[in-house]
Amino acid sequence: MTRVLSIEDDPEMQHLIGDVLFRCGYEVHYSWNGRDGYEKILMLRPDLVLLDIMLPLMNGFEVLKKMRETPATRDILVIIVSAYGSEADALGRSVTNWGVFSYLHKPFRMDDLVSQVKSALSRFPDDSNQGKKARRKEISKGSVRADPESRTVWFAGRLIATLSPKSFDLIERLMRNSGAVSKDHLMKDLDYENCDALKKAVQRLREELGDSHKHRIWTAPEGYELKGAEYQEPHPHGDQVTSGDKKTLESPPVP
Predict the structure, then answer these.
(1) pTM summary value
(2) Does the pLDDT at position 95 exceed 70?
(3) Architecture of domain 3-133
């Protein structure tokens, strides 16, 4: 079933769009702000995005820019649905240059929306399906999930980072191992010249994951490990953590 994502903060408009497209046989998903909308684009890979411009948290221009900068989403069809600007002005021309299929200016008739949706999907019927068939499989470790196509990392269903290519290669290697990966294996597999180069790469990865999740890259005696579960601070005395009758020893997240 063809998948459509509507990113719209007006509840009445969102309801109308969803109801009309659902009755036309489309699988319709919703988002109420730009940030969540972009995350759903990465997660759902819709065939078509209906994108408002004036959105909270992240406006439509920012969403569109991120889509076109990301290889996994740059070819997804987009129809702008907004009261901001028009097809005839500079704004309408500029977003069209960004690969937007069409620009529907509010208010509009629902049959015009359906016509535009059908036209877009009939003109490019195979693009999205071909992309989905060739898509590299996501990898998971605990509550951490990584998408090779968009180089994104998710925790508990929320986007936490979009990584550079080298940082993604490193986290992907760590996620494919149940425990720690030795420094020797990492240097060999990822072509690092020496331990100093590897340490710098680990530091970059932690920085890209951000303060809230950098702790997931742990330093083990033999190398590095990605922690996929909820994080528990090391004990201040000897790094020993006690949970019931179980005790575990963890190393602090330093190179």
Answers:
(1) 0.62
(2) no
(3) 3-Layer(aba) Sandwich (3.40)
| Domain range annotation of the chain | 3-133, 139-249
Residue keyed to tokens 């600007």:
85
pLDDT of residue 104: 87
What is the per-residue pLDDT across 114-170, written as a single tens digit (0 to 9) for each?
A: 999 999 998 776 544 444 445 567 889 988 988 887 788 988 888 888 888 899 999
CA distance 76 to 207: 30
- Longest alpha-carbon distance in the chain: 70
Burial of 178 (0-12, 13-18, 19+ CB in 10 A): exposed
Residue 171: its pLDDT value, please? 94
pLDDT tens digits for range 48-69? 999 999 999 999 989 999 998 8
Q: DSSP E strands: which ranges in 39-175?
A: 48-51, 77-82, 102-105, 139-141, 144-147, 152-155, 158-162
Q: Tell me if 13 sits within 8 A of 58, measured CB to CB.
A: no
Q: Which CATH number fits domain 139-249: 3.40.50.2300, 1.20.910.10, 1.10.10.10, 3.30.70.940?
A: 1.10.10.10
Question: What is the DSSP track for 77-115?
Answer: EEEEEESSS-TTSHHHHHHHHTT-SEEEESS--HHHHHH
Q: What is residue 60's three-state secondary structure?
A: helix
At residue 232, the 3 state secondary structure works out as: coil
Mean pLDDT of the chain: 81
For 214, phi and psi rounded to 5 degrees?
-65, -25
Identify residue 23 by its one-letter amino acid code: R
